[in-house]
Amino acid sequence: MSTEGDAGRVLLEREGGLARLVISNPAARGAFTEAMYAQLRDHCLALAADASVRLVSVTGRDGTFAAGTDVADLVGIRTGEDGVAYERHIVDVLDAVRALRVPVLALVDGPAVGGGLAVVACCDVVVATPSSRFGAPVARTLGNCVSPGTTARLRASLGRALTNELLLTGRLATAEEVRAAGLVSRVVEPEQLAAVEAELLASVSRCAPHAVAAAKEIGQRLDDADVVGAGGWPVDADDVYAAVYSHPDFHEGVAAFLERRRPRWSTP
């Protein structure tokens, strides 16, 4: 949990055609607060309107990419309606990441879990270090669920089998596992991440901006069409959200996490 004095932020750094978004919340291992989600959304909306941007990279700090949502912010979710509103807010944030017309590079060093994994799934190129871990262990830790949009993107990049295993068991996958599955393009040492970022910026800068934007748009439309063709999108999950966030298990999960103990789930 972050305190007022060290509240997390999503920082925007500019270096020529590169816009770097840095997820920084060291007090909570990079977890997103509500304010940080809003900062990420607002940065992406502003960058989408900036023609000087050729590449957006998203990275963490101090060996952590993003460890989900700051659980302290979930205490205020008391009803199913609160949960629906929360999930819609997260969809707005992820839609802003996906709306960027330039390539988005995720540089993952450390855990990318929960909301962090949802952000990674919206990126075009993902590079990770050997110690990175990927997953959405909310069924094991908090008692809530992953949205249809993020589930669909994970199935598209990881495959149905691995996605189901991770979501249904709460297990975290290694960088090599997700590279073999297709989410990560390269696994490199932490000291090589900056060079990868510079290399991709140079490569993208040699391309026609409108051609890159067109290639990205076509790819996203194909991804969305694949899900529609499978009968899986768009999906209205508000009833699922309402049931999950109003259930005693969710409130127990949040309390247990903050009290640093194992949750005591209800019997089926």
Structure description:
This protein is 47% helix and 15% strand. The protein is an alpha/beta fold and 268 residues long. It has one domain: Alpha-Beta Complex (2-enoyl-CoA Hydratase, Chain A, domain 1), CATH 3.90.226. Helix 5 packs across helix 6 (160-169).
Top-tier CATH class: Alpha Beta
Largest sheet composition: 6 strands, mixed
Number of helices: 11
Number of strands: 10
- The coarse overall form would be globular
Compute the number of structural domains: 1
Instruction: Give me the CATH fold name.
Output: 2-enoyl-CoA Hydratase, Chain A, domain 1
Structural class by helix and strand composition: alpha/beta
Radius of gyration over C-alpha positions, nearest whole angstrom: 18 Å
Q: How far is the N terminus from the C terminus?
A: 31 Å
| CATH homologous superfamily annotation | 2-enoyl-CoA Hydratase, Chain A, domain 1
List keywords for this structure.
alpha/beta; single chain; 268 residues; four-stranded mixed β-sheet; globular; six-stranded mixed β-sheet; 10 strands
Task: Summarize it.
This protein has 268 residues and is an alpha/beta fold. It contains eleven helices and ten strands. It has a single domain, classed as 2-enoyl-CoA Hydratase, Chain A, domain 1, CATH 3.90.226.
